[in-house]
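Two records follow; treat each independently.
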Amino acid sequence: MVFSHGLGGTKNAYSHLLGSLSSHGVVVIAPEHRDGSAPLSCIHQKRGSASRLVEYRSISHRQSPEVEKARDEQLKIRLWEIGLVHEALLKIDRGEPLTNLLSEESADASGHLAMFASSLDVHTAGSISWAGHSFGAASIVQFVKSVFYHKAQSAVSSHQRLFDPSTSSQVAHQITPSSAVYLLDLWCLPLLSEQTRWLRDLPLPSYSAEGPGGRNITAILSEAFFKWEKNLMELKRTISEDPSLDTPLNKSHPAPYVFYPVSSAHLSQSDFGILFPWLTKKVLKAQDPARTLRLNTRAILEVMRRNGIEVANTSAVDMEQATSDGHIPQGQLGQDLSILKGDGSVPGWIALDLAKSSGHVDEAANERTSENADPMDAVVQGEMTKTLSG
């Protein structure tokens, strides 16, 4: 899995979620983007040259031509970096040495990477999963669609490509209708640029004739993003079989998995709630961030299982399977059959219906959904990481 971080995030900001996935057998690569979205990033140069710092770039969260241009510039960097990650994965699996490792760490790093030689399933078409949070989720959508539709032509001359791989490239071979995507709090504004409108109106690869439809698309929202009506409608459009329609529907394909953990914040998808529990509860009004991360992990792993990806079973503790006397058996493992049902069997875990203009499958499941949400609250939370790091 390749995972792209959000605004104010870093390569280390999702260690709980990604570490949990790794503990079940998923090899996860989390690059740190150098587009000005991380609090501070460093570009290391060759020996004898000074390193270059990339500071956080403050850009408005309100849509305008200037904002669209700035976000497109960031996406160009992000998609290029994700492409480089894919190239590096192929080299690692082939046992080829990487020549751009930090000099002081190159010996140890080379040894660690050598153990993955001939062990990564990265050459089979569609074998890599793609995931991201917030701006990272938007980056993943733009990446897989840019690669999959690399032959497509727009009828409008002003439209542009932010990432344009060649037909013979390995990444063009990798992205197929079976490529799974996992979108945590997809922030849709970066996808609304007029310059990439042609790509926005095309569906995710899994909706191709030979694809599984929504069965390998998973979107998980926080409470803030669920209440953000405009973004919610754009999310539904993005993951539907025809994003060009004003009303997203799935008539010909299975619907994607869309869930919402009750009383969760935008930063509940990251390590923020684990590191700052008091702030998360008092300021962001989120409850039990550790459980939110466990629910997210359970859903991702079960979607993987149902799409034929071999991962370890989930523990009874994580599945909250208490016996009649309240005891949870330690060490017991099993397949997580309840997490994708959306029938209320998992408390505080609500399934969303693409066909509805708004609301839950069971609207009465959470009375707080009637409250209005300021869209700024949903995204600006991501910049708290930058502020606390500064």
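The next record belongs to a different protein.
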Amino acid sequence: MWGTWFGGNSAQRRKDAPKKAILDLRQQLDMLQKRERHLENQMANEDKKARDNVSSNKTAARAALKRKKQHEHSLEQTNGQISMLEQQIYSIESANINQETLAAMKNAGAAMKTIHGKMTMEDVDLTMEQLREQHELTQEIGNAITSMPITEPIDEDELESELNQMEQEKVDETILRGGPVPVGDSIGKMPAVDAGPVRNSRKPAQEDDEEEELRKLQAEMAM
């Protein structure tokens, strides 16, 4: 019981140590950043005092510049401390992430070991062979089913003859009604008239434009 209490508390403290360290560092960083802003304001005030008294009171101007220099020195130290704290926070965060990543990888490795505990390559090869056999059997069954015709094949010649008969009946019905015979029918086609090329008495629009341009050019040359 005592071991569980102390051991559990110790493990928890080790786990929370990085978080506590980062929290303390961030609090200190916040304080230093506030000091940085305060020193910058002080420097601006002393600079203004020096400029205001540079002509009328050089003693006051010199004292203001001296205080400004002191603030500058303090600001440099504060900036250095801020940089150091930021680097420490970054290092602790990186180390903590590495630790958590490693722990997750260990857990994943243990899980994979448990999954593969009773699995051997012989089992894998046997399973794959059985799958291949069943796949081949499925293909053979499918080929056998699709290769056996369910109905008798259709006679294409008989189909064409029936189609021609239907077409002839339609032509006969059209003739009896006194209507025009379809052009595409096999019966009732009119003999083709050998007509020569149709000549257009009117000239194309392009030729008219060319003649018009020619007349304009001749008129300009006559002038």
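Discussion point: The helical segments are 2-53, 58-115, 121-147, 156-176, 205-222. How would you locate this feature using only the token line?
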